[in-house]
Amino acid sequence: MSAAEAITTGVQELRMTELTDRRLRQLARELGQEWKSLATLLGYKKAKIFQIENDNPCQTQEQIFSMLVEWRQQNPSSPDQIESLSNQLREVGREDLADELLGNFQREDARKQQGFAETMFCGRHKSQKDVYCKTCQELICKTCSLSNNHESHQYFTVEEASERYKQVLKDQLPVFNTDLAKIDQALMFISQAEQTFSSQLTQATGVVQNRAVRAVEEVIAEGNRVIDELKQREKDYQQTLNEKRKTLTELRRRKSHTVAVAEYVMQEESSSDFLVRYTDIRKQFEKLGSERPPKSDVKLVYPLFLRSQNIGPVNLGEVVMEDTWELCHKFGKQGQGEGEFESARGIAAAAEPDEIAVADWKNERVVICDKQGQIRGFISVISHDVKAMLDGWVVASSPDVKVYKRDRTLAYEFRTIDSEAGKTTIHVVSFVLLNNGNIIAGDIARKVLTEHQPGKKGKLIRTIPVSLRPNHLAVLSNGWIVISDLEQGLAGIVDVSDGKAAEVATIQPTIDGKPGKRCGGVCSNSSGIYLVVSTGYVNSSHIHHYNCAGQFVSCVAQGLYNPQGITFTVDGQQLAVADRHSVKIYHKV
């Protein structure tokens, strides 16, 4: 048999044996709900499809595999068998699987058959190439090995070279097979996440619809708003999963094809045939070897539907997404030097430039730094809390509130009391900046909030008594104030729009089912309230996420030392926490 005839025979044998159980199982893993449409195109009746499903309940992959095996048995092995299955895969929209099944062998046949004879014979010396030059990595004839072009090179017989390089590929195959297993696991997790999300979505939508049916027109409108938000959540989440699936599926297709070609060449072809193809295969292994499967970072999340507590004229409830944060950066240690903190109590973030200010109470200073901890300057002042204004910083320095310019020089300062100044104990340790620019300060000695107008150097506008000690404050987007009482371990939401503190909700945090002993720093964004909760022991503090009605959503961080201040960075993507002797930066995962 000539070399060209051998190649032709090898390709035909490949076609006759390519639909192995392994190949069919690969197809079964990658096919989804479209498998029933494929079965219909392959000639299966509805009754037969129903029987296959009953034979393998709750095991979709086994259903698909059984269908494909039975179809293979009913259709004798031939090139037409592969072509027929590929055509039907295209009909159901799985061109990727059709291309993978064909594996580019059809396009290579003509070139392989036409050029094999020239490849295996030396055109220069008209003799068989039966020596492999290791130095040049090519087949040559014996006469070529004696020429100047190959002088002093290292040679192998084709049999020796074939065995050596088969072992090279064999050593690399486990890595690729491990990668394929990881890809399959990641794809399976995506499918599970998709199913769980869909189930939770259906449940949440049902709750909203049931409540809306029994409501008046404005409640129905509110229900539609929540449903639209759920659909948007689904759309966003589905887009994320689809992008990850697309990336993993494409990487799997290319690696799987490379493995299939390598296995065929190693097992089915002669030594000479193997060496002809080895260089191309080696290049593919080198190229794909660096493309490792990404770590499966798909988090199983789903929308949570929180019932209304009758806040506002019409409110069916709120849709929130459970979120998780992880520590991405930490800087600082205990001490009095640069880059050290004795009692980091308050923290603030400013946009221009991108800076963080830390109220280091015991060291009697405010530390200005960037998000990596690089020091940019200090403000020498006893500081309980600090906030960023557009053009400077505001510091709670009991009994005063001090306003500094961006260059850290004092602009002005004011007290939170007028007529009784000097007669009443004042202890201002917290404050917030309202959307209109006014400052609301928290006085724990008098248990009051005071509102001030910075444009008139802190002119007192009003004093509002509150039931909780305002150790820490935050303001919600609707103007409500969140008060964190350190000693009572409570947080409250109050409406101060009419000059009085109307209680909206009370938050009583728990840790492991037990009430928290202390409530520390608090901040907020559009998703709700983030509150520091502690058992009273060091290294036991949590950060809890509540919605704007005070309902618990999730625990986003644990094991903090003894945090007080907490704030979002300007871009809203990170949480900065003043944790007594250090600053910890968290980001969402």
TrEMBL record:
Coiled coil spans: 213-254
Name of this protein: Uncharacterized protein
A Gene Ontology molecular function term of the record: ubiquitin protein ligase activity
Gene3D superfamilies on file: Classic Zinc Finger, Death Domain, Fas, TolB, C-terminal domain
Keywords recorded for this protein, A-Z: Coiled coil, Metal-binding, Zinc, Zinc-finger
Presence of keyword Zinc: yes
Entry-linked Pfam families: Death, zf-B_box
